[in-house]
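User: Show me a protein chain along with its predicted structure.
Assistant: Here is one chain, sequence first, then structure tokens.
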Amino acid sequence: MAEVLWNKDVIREKLKLFQDAAVIDQEISGAIVKSGLEDKNEYNTEEMMKILEALISYGGYVAFVARNLKINLICKGLSD
């Protein structure tokens, strides 16, 4: 089975309901750095979980969105 790859645009799309695009890009970039990952187009599930954990640490709406995305990733993994 091929590994599922995730694009950071998934996070961006969900966060744009709550925040300005420039702020979103800063938060995502900061979470990638905080996770010890390099900035790239696609991430495997483990890497995406690290990014989401970093976003959860920001609190507020960012954490709310990141928790929901994390649940979606977990459910996707269970259904595969």
